[in-house]
Amino acid sequence: MLSILLIFAAALFFSGIIVRTKSVCAGRRGPGVFQPIKDVARLFRKGAVYSTATTAIFKAAPVIYMASLLMAAACVPFGNMPGLISFEGDFVFFAYVLSLGKFFCIIAALDTASSFEGMGASRESLYSMLAEPVFFLVMGSIALLTGNTSFAGIFASLQTYGSFFNFGTALVMAVLLLLVAMIENSRLPIDDPKTHLELTMVHEVMILDNSGFDLGLILSAGYIKFAMYGAIIANLFLCGSFAGSIAIFTLVQLLCAVAIGLTESFMARFRMNHNPEFIFSLSAAAFLILFTIVNL
Amino acid sequence: MTEYFYTAPDALSLWFIAIIVIVFTAGAFYGADYLKAYRSHKRELRLHVFNYIAVFASMIALPLISNALVFLVAWEIMALGSYFLIIFESWKSDTIKAGLNFFIQSHISVVLLTIGFLMMYSKTGSFDFAAIKAYSSANPGTCGWPFALICMGFAVKAGFVPFHTWLPVAHPAAPAHISGVMSGVIIKIGIYGIFRAITLFNIDFTVAGAIILAVAAISGLYGVMMAIVQHNLKKLLAYHSIENIGIIGMGIGLGCMARGMGLDNVASLAFAGALLHTFNHALFKSSLFFTAGNVYQAAHTLNVEHLGGLFRRLPVTGLFFLVAAVAICGLPPMNGFVSELMIYLGLFGSLGNMAAASQLGITAAIVALVLIGGLAILCFTKAFGIVFLGESRSELPEMKEFGALRNVPLGILAAIMLSVGLCPGFYVGLINNILPELECTAVAIPRTISGIGIASACVIGISLLLALIRRIATRKRTITEGETWGCGYTVPSPKLQYTATSFVKTYAKTFSGVLKSGFIDKAADAYIRFTGRFAFLQNGRLQSYILYGIVFIVVTILLTFVLC
Fold first, then answer.
1. Chain A residues whose beta carbon lies within 8 Å of the beta carbon of residue B486
2. Do A50 and B480 lie within an 8 Å CB cutoff?
């Protein structure tokens, strides 16, 4: 219960911190930390425009997307406190329920009969499909290291501070998970959410036709997604004491947000045909971690 | 008579009979409506119905037979009957060609099985399954070759790579209910055979399991990778059968490996996952083929590039296709997720308990299963999105939704699929009765089984709750309708839509190395070139053929003198 509340709390700040980091780096005054949340709140109060080409699928998709995100967030534990849903193999459920949301987002994009949205859907489905093995390999390595196959069991028995090796592995895994989070959320260097040309977008162009309440759902689901991956990364570093754990959780979320903000400030988006190569290299790195642990 | 049959059929036989009966019954009702379009072909219809019943009867008999010779006879009835079922539209030359392809390949399977069983007969002097079991357990490790041959024979029927080539040809040619039944259960009888062989033979399971796992992982990846680039809806589904047979095979392979190594927990999870996936695949694949049949009879084409926007015209068909598509992608809350999760748990469970080399193989298998899952999503978002959503891509005829004779069987299949996702405990309980025959204990993951059920219910519950909130929140808002936002372009046309080709273009480019390598086609070409050198033997002169016969008989007689 605690973990999902913490994720919601972190979701309130996460995007705002990214935006703040970017405006500080660019030397602008920029919007406040809560601007993304205010935007979503405004969207929830707005009316909507639906394309005449769309069917019920288009209206159901944002709801199912949000539901899948909430279910996934409910799996994430906080240290040795299990999440709302916890069983052996729950991290497989986590990945697959996220895919359920993606499935509906993609077919909703095809529902609009727009070439732009089909393009975005095609790219998003390919990139997130390629990124999935990275997540599974990282989780598989920790599962192997701890001998557990549930989120709660894994993080409860992970002794990050026990040895230099464990801490180092956790650091590398954290970086990989952060990159997976950036791919899953369609941020740089895979996708540039602030670009102006629809042809170069991935996620933004896929949800081009959503408006009002539906768009609000999709955006807020995105904020939860960030905080959720942040929470998984934070779990790698939590310590025994409760107060210390909360402090580490906050620090890790902050660091992740700032890291994403810095990346977006100082990097350009990859060329589209280089994206698969980038994602494959992440899989290779994840393989290396697993092999190291296998040969321990 | 009774000595040729199991007097008390075991749980394994009953499980497969249940699958056969469910799908064949659904197929019979669906087919009755589907064949109304062919009312003028009285002669073909009579032959078709006769063969449907013959295949149904022989399929139910196969799991009950306990004698190799009788098994082969029933197998032959099934193979011949399926051939006649496939060539229903025999006035089309493509159908005959596809049928002959199936005919020849299913007899390769018969040959392999016959040789395997004869090898065992030469050792035991009996065709009885019990004799095989008794001999094999008395002489462990000596029956590797017969086991391999028999498994290969079954693998042809099941459609493992490289024995899969009949599937993508036969499925599009057959009528929809036959495709559904064929992909749903006829290929599963191959899986039954492999399971039965595992119960009979006592061999080096570690090696056999590793080979099955590798073949299955390749089948799974190859099937889904080829499926994505198909434009014929039924061909796409046929390649997906290869993928799902691959997933089932991964469970069987892992189970054998674990049994050989004495990892009881892993073996039971893997075998149970494979058995449940066999059941699941029978349900969703037959649903998909039935709905594809609806699409074909409504739109008169299966080329996805000509379809689009069918969801508004055939909403019930579309809904059943969507449910089955979510299930086949292994997504919660449907049934595919349960069986895939069990195989995942088996794979992860075996990681810590094996030698380093095997662990590398298991890791590769995990990555393969993850990729299969991801690629299946790409494939079915394409299939559903392009066929049912958007605007139609060509002038489609007037169409109206089909009647209850089709929708009720589809509805029942969908309900069973959902029930596996919501109460997996019941189905795992049934499978637990089978596991002792495979020499494993019952599946011991009560938290996971109940957890999946609760989580699946939550997915549906939260979705409905959010939909309610959305409805209340947007009740007073102004909702307007308009054209799709064209990014400034103001003359939209259905021709501007993303097509199936463009949707998978990025994928096809990324994986062009694998897709074009033709690791099957090249081998097949080489084989055809090699056999082409002997074409002079087939010269059409009767005298030559009589000569071949005489030479064959003389050589056979001489060989008996030389060898004995």
1. 114, 116
2. yes
Which residue in A213, A257, A229 sits closest to A65, CA to CA? A213
Apex B274 CA angle, B272 and B275, nearest 5: 65
Question: Residue A33: inside a domain, yes or no?
Answer: no
Q: Indicate the helix (H) or strand (E) that contains B362.
A: helix B356-388
Q: Is A45 a member of any domain?
A: no
If you measure CA to CA, which chain B residue comes closest to A198?
Answer: B487
Q: Which residues of B touch A122 (CB under 8 A)?
A: 498, 502-507
> Would residue A35 count as lying in a domain?
no
Spell out which residues of chain B touch residue A46, defining contact as CB-CB under 8 Å: 477
Q: What range does the domain containing A229 cover?
A: 2-27+51-295
User: Does residue B365 contact residue B348 with C-beta atoms inside 8 Å?
Assistant: no
A111–B479 C-beta distance less than 8 A: no
Per CB-CB distance under 8 Å, the chain B contacts of A97 are: 331-332, 455, 459
> Does position B514 have pLDDT exceeding 80, yes or no?
no
Confidence of residue B398 (pLDDT cuts 50, 70, 90): confident
Nearest to A259, CA basis, from A200, A193, A176: A176
Does the pTM exceed 0.95?
no
Q: Are A216 and B470 in contact (CB under 8 A)?
A: no
Report the gap between the CA of A13 and the closest CA in chain B (Å). 23
Q: Which helix (H) or strand (E) holds B480?
A: strand B479-482
d(CA B253, CA B240): 19
Give how far the C-alpha of residue A130 lies from the chain's centroid of Cα atoms, to the nearest Å: 15
Asked if the peptide bond before residue A82 counts as cis, ω within 30 degrees of 0, the response is no
Name the minimum distance, in Å, from the CA of A24 to any CA of chain B: 31
Digit-coded pLDDT (tens) for A159-206: 777 778 888 888 888 999 999 888 888 887 777 777 777 777 777 788
Residue A50 forms beta bridges with which residues? Answer: B481
**Which two tokens mark B83?**
């051939």
CB of B336 within 8 Å of any CB in chain A? no
**Alpha carbons B394 and B400: distance in angstroms, whole number:** 17
Other beta carbons within 10 angstroms of residue A161's beta carbon come to 13
Sequence-separated (6 or more) residues with CB below 8 Å from residue B127: B67, B68, B69, B70, B117, B121
Q: How many helices (H) does chain B have, and how many strands (E)? A: 24, 1
Burial of B72 (0-12, 13-18, 19+ CB in 10 A): middle
Query: Mean pLDDT across chain A, nearest whole number?
Result: 86
CB B353 within 8 A of CB B263: yes
Q: How far apart are CA B165 and CA B150, in angstroms?
A: 19
CB-nearest to A276 from B344, B487, B510 is B510
Domain count, chain A: 1
Q: Which of B314, B296, B410 is nearest to B30 (CA)?
A: B410
Residues of A in contact with B478 (CB under 8 A): 47
Type of residue numbered A275: N
CB B307 within 8 A of CB B299: yes
Beta strands in B222-355 (DSSP E): none
Question: What gap in Å lies between CA A281 and CA A170, rounded to an integer?
Answer: 18
CB contact under 8 A, A198 and B487: yes
B514 and chain A: CB distance < 8 Å anywhere? no
Stated length of chain B: 564
Q: How far apart are CA B387 and CA B344, in angstroms?
A: 32
Question: Does any domain span residue A180?
Answer: yes
Instruction: For residue B299, give how far its alpha carbon lies from the nearest alpha carbon of chain A (Å).
Output: 19
The reply to whether ipTM tops 0.85 is yes
Check pLDDT > 70 for residue B173: yes
